[in-house]
Amino acid sequence: MLPAGCRITLSAELQKDSQREIVVQVSDNGPGLPDEALRAVFDPFAARDRVPSEYGIYLMACFFIVHHHGGKIEASSQPGRGTTFTLHLPLKPEPVVTSSSDTDFLKKALFNENLWEKLLASLDFCL
Questions:
Q1: Is 39 helix (H, G, I), strand (E, B) or coil?
Q2: Does 127 score more than 50 pLDDT?
Q3: Of 8, 38, 78, 101, which residue has the fewest beta carbons closer than 10 angstroms?
Q4: Is 5 exposed, middle or buried (0-12, 13-18, 19+ CB in 10 A)?
Q5: Phi, psi (deg, nearest 5) at residue 110
Q6: What is the per-residue pLDDT across 95-107, written as a single tens digit (0 to 9) for each?
Q7: What is the DSSP secondary-structure string of 59-96?
Q8: Given this model, what pLDDT does residue 13 score?
């Protein structure tokens, strides 16, 4: 959550050097993320603020959605100057072939009892 007075900016542009990609940026002017948090921003197993509802499952979902549309997502941050998420999305995506490493990761996530316990605890927290 951003402190009061902060704002979120959304921009999109067609790459001028290549008519094959659109770049979408979501930025805020908040306090930014420390390097350790930035490295784990797409990690579903990283807890934020030790609150069960603050696990990184949502940004992991963004990562997979962008990936399966043939794009990529990056995060950058400067302490005191905000955080930016940059999505590179192809205008005509190629079909994405699932590799065995993708399947292994999904199995790891789906069968991780510790992750499910934390996610279920976050539902209790929200109710």
A1: helix
A2: no
A3: 101
A4: exposed
A5: -70, -30
A6: 766 666 666 766 7
A7: HHHHHHHHHHTT-EEEEEEETTTEEEEEEEEESSPPPP
A8: 92
